[in-house]
Design a protein that fits this description.
The complex is a heterodimer of chains A (181) and B (269).
Chain A lengths: L3 H8 L8 H134 L5 H22 L1
Chain B lengths: L6 H5 L23 E3 L2 E3 L1 H21 L8 H21 L2 H4 L3 H16 L15 H32 L9 H44 L5 H42 L4
Antiparallel strand pairs in B: 1-2
Helix pairs in contact in B: 2-3, 2-5, 3-5, 3-8, 5-8, 6-7, 6-8, 7-8
The chains are: A mainly alpha (181), B mainly alpha (269).
């Protein structure tokens, strides 16, 4: 320390006055750095940056193209879908109409058959009734004849007997009807 | 005792041992020549300056010499640095169209200065090259010559003179005085402050680091150890702070260079 102070004192100069060797070598050192940057590094990297920019822009163009194509395909698809929907609606409508017509037809047919059946039933009933009334008429005639015969066959003097006969006849008739049932 | 910067570590003397604090000072910025080539004495700052060139060129050689469309890690870092100076400084101040020409200068200035500053905290080197006024002065001189010549080339002699002196008749009778001040400010003070701003920042930073480093060693005795530990914490804090200042000062130097060129290109100030 003691030895150093005089040594420093004799060498120390104003720190703001640049020593020439440092100035020259500093400038040279910088010139070399600048040279490398100006003629080698920056042209090389700028070229690549430019290429990258172009690549990105090219990529964007391709993407744009793909997007447009996708858009058109989508439009096409949508149109087809709409058409298909329309067609489906039409078919459904048609089917509905056909179904309705068929139902109407079937209903009409059923109605017709029912009426036929009813008509046949009525005819049958009428025929039966006719046959029955005919048979009844015959029976009644016969019965009347029988009754008359019986009434005539019995002595008519006795009113009581007469009425008894009638009662008997009627009960016979009832029995007959009972048995016939 | 040959090297002033290693003084504190060679004296091996601590507090309470009867020796004073080996204060760092201007002598800390003087270096004995290590060897002489062709009449030029090479000392530590000169070697570090040359090494800065080698490292900057080496890094960008590795990063940019075979650039790829899809960058590797090194190229990505290089591109980030390049883009920072190009877009963040040059385009911002001068503009893209006129600034493009000055991009190589600004990029090389930035990385060269930054590297020279970084030596401040690299073990064994531990000296900011820009704390020797010759280095910032040389670089400031380049910028000075450039913007002055641009001014006269762009505006002619009279126009250039008007540009530098901020010629403005609307100021009234004081305008000659303003012109004088502007002339002095731009032609004399500007290059000086441009160089000294960088120099003084790195100089002061180095002195601060030296004070705390030397103190950490010097106080290492008895009760002084408690103070030494505080001093050592300060060394670490200042190292981190210097790391920030190194980049900031490189940035400021380049930003000012761009702003001077922009002023030279512009019509009147």
């Amino acid at each position: 320390m003691i030895a150093l102070v005089p040594l420093a004192a004799e060498e120390i100069q104003n720190p703001l006055i640049p020593p020439i060797p440092e100035l020259v070598i500093g400038l040279m050192a910088f010139a070399i750095v600048f040279g490398f940057f100006a003629w080698k590094f920056l042209p090389a990297i700028n070229k690549v940056l430019e290429e990258r920019r172009e690549a990105i822009e090219g990529g964007m163009e391709a993407a744009e193209e793909a997007r447009t194509e996708a858009q058109s395909v989508l439009e096409q698809y949508r149109a087809q879908l709409a058409e298909a929907r329309h067609e489906a609606a039409r078919l459904r409508q048609e089917a509905l109409e056909q179904g309705t017509a068929l139902k109407e037809e079937l209903r009409a047919e059923g109605q017709r058959q029912r009426e036929e059946i009813i008509a046949a039933g009525h005819a049958q009933i009428a025929a039966d009734r006719k046959a029955a009334s005919q048979a009844l008429r015959q029976d009644v005639g016969k019965l009347a004849t029988d009754l008359a015969g019986k009434l005539v066959g019995e002595s008519l003097e006795d009113h009581a007997r007469q009425s008894r006969t009638i009662d008997r006849f009627l009960s016979e008739l009832e029995e007959k009807a009972e048995a016939a049932r | 005792m040959s090297d002033a910067t290693t003084l504190a570590f060679e004296t091996d003397c601590h507090i309470f041992e009867g020796c004073g604090f080996p204060t760092p000072g201007l002598h800390s910025f003087l270096f004995k020549p290590m060897f002489t080539v062709g009449g030029i004495e090479f000392n530590k700052p000169i070697l570090l300056a040359l090494l800065s060139s080698v490292i900057v060129i080496g890094f960008f050689w590795a990063a940019f010499s075979k650039p790829k469309l899809i960058p590797g890690k090194l190229q990505m870092i290089g591109e980030a640095g390049y883009d920072f100076v190009r877009r963040g400084v040059v385009y911002e101040t001068i503009g893209k169209r006129e600034g493009e020409k000055y991009v190589p200068l600004m990029v090389s200035l930035f990385f060269f200065i930054w590297m020279m500053n970084i030596w401040s905290i690299i073990p064994l080197a531990q000296f900011p090259v820009t704390a020797i006024i010759a280095f910032p002065a040389g670089l400031a001189a380049i910028v000075y010559v450039l913007w002055v010549s641009i001014t006269f080339k762009r505006h002619g002699f009279v126009g250039g003179f008007k540009n530098i002196t901020a010629y403005d008749k609307s100021l009234g009778p004081v305008f000659p005085v303003v012109m004088l001040f502007e002339f002095l400010s731009n032609m004399l003070i500007r290059p000086f402050t441009h160089a000294v701003r960088l120099f003084a920042n790195m100089f002061a930073g180095h002195v601060l680091l030296l004070i705390f480093t030397i103190a950490s060693w010097y106080l290492l005795n008895g009760i002084g150890i408690a103070y030494a530990s505080v001093s050592f914490v300060m060394v670490i804090v200042m190292t981190i702070f210097e790391l920030f200042i190194q980049a900031l000062q490189a940035y400021v130097f380049v930003l000012l260079s761009c702003s001077y060129i922009q002023g030279a290109l512009a019509e009147h100030h």
